[in-house]
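Quick start: read one record
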Amino acid sequence: MSYQGIRLPSELSIDQLFSLHYFEYMNSFYFPGESHPFWEFVCVDKGDVTIGAGNRSFVLTRGQIAFHEPGEFHWVKAGDGAAPCLIVISFSSDSPMMDFFRNKVLNIQETDRRLLARTVQEARSYLNGRLDDPYQTSLSIRPEAPPGAAQIIRTCLEQFLIGLFRRHNREEGPALFVGLSPSPDKTMKKNADEETFTRISRYLSANLSAHLSIEQICTDNLISRSRLQKLLHEKCGKGIIEYYSLLKIEAAKQMIRDEQMNFTQISESLGYSSIHYFSRQFKKMTGMTPSEYASSIRAIAERVPEHRHIDGKQSAKIIHKEY
C-alpha cells in the first residue's frame, strides 16, 4: 500500500515582521505620521482614536481594526473619550489575499482577540525591549527566547488575517467533518462557562470601588466558591481576588492616562484604604509606581520621531530579523 502526499500551499504568508506594539496612550497622544513599504494594521483594544490614511480620516473605536497598505501615509491621535490602548503590527506580505485589506476598516470578534492576545504574549517573550514605544524601528530577539515563539507569532497573525478575510467575504460556509465537532454537552458547558465568566467580569468591573470578598462575589452571582475558583483558573490562570485586583489596577492605569484625577482621587474612587496601599498594589501589578507609570507614558507622548518617511533603502536597515 503506497501513499502519495500533497504539498500544503500558503495562500497568505507573512514574510517579515517590522514592528509589534501594544500601546497604552495618554488621551493627549498624537503621532504625526509616517509611510513605509510594508503593511500595518491598528486595532483598538480600549477607547477610541482618530486615524489618518492617505486623504481619509476616521474614528476607530474598540474592536475595530484599520489597515494601511504599503506606501500609504498614516497618522493617529487619541480620541475625545477614554485614553486608548492599541495593538499596532507591521509586516511584509506579497500574498494576493492581502489585496482584500486595502482601505479596509473591519470589526473583530472574540476569536480574533484571542489570536492577537497570543501574538502579543509571544512577542513579549521573543522580542527585546518594550512593546509600547511607537518610535522603535528596529527589532531584536531575546537570547533566551522560547523555542517556536517566532513561528507562533507568524501563524497566529496569518490565522488572524485569514479569519478576517473568510468571515468578511462570507466564504466560511458550514463546518465540515461534523463527527469531529465537540459533543453537544461539551459545547453547552463551554458556552455556559463563557457566559458565567463574562457576567462575573462585568460584575467585578461595576464594583471596582467596593471591597468585595469571595463570599460576596459568590452570593451575588449564585455560584459556589469551588466552581468560581476553578472557572477563573481555567479562563485567566488567576484566583478571583487576584483577578479583581488586576481589574482595579487596569482601571487605575486608564484613569492616569485620562488625566482627569490625581492619584489620591483615583485611589479613593477604586476603594483603596490609602494612597500608600494603592501605590504598593500598583507597583506589585505593574512593576512601577503610579507616578513612574504616568511619567513613562507621558514621555512617549512627548517624543517626536526622527523620521516621518521610511523609504526602501532605510527599511532595509530595519529588516534585519526575519522568520
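The longest helix spans residues 184-206.
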